[in-house]
Amino acid sequence: MATSLKSTLGTQVRKVRLSRGLTQEVLAEQLGVTPRYLAGIERGERNLTLDSVDALAKQLGIETQSLLLVS
């Protein structure tokens, strides 16, 4: 079964967060969202718009495509 795009996005956000040694609370504060919202993204529960994905990537300082591709 194929992995959903929401799950892929969440996995990639989690990888970025962990690679920077950040907690969900710290990254959520940096992104201007609640830790609960960020946790929902990481679990693949949030249905973000393409504009939101683009803005999230910009806030993380990475290319948008890297959030949507399985690595």
From TrEMBL:
Q: Which residues form the HTH cro/C1-type domain?
A: 13-67
Q: Where is the signal peptide?
A: none
Q: Which InterPro entries match?
A: Cro/C1-type_HTH, Lambda_DNA-bd_dom_sf, TransReg_Diox_bact_type
Alphabetically ordered keywords of this record = DNA-binding, Transcription, Transcription regulation
Q: Which PROSITE patterns match?
A: HTH_CROC1
Determine if Protein biosynthesis is one of this entry's keywords.
no
Known Pfam families for this protein?
HTH_3
Any one GO cellular component localisation term in the record? cytosol
One GO MF term, please?
DNA binding
Q: What is this protein called?
A: Helix-turn-helix protein
The source organism is: Homoserinimonas aerilata
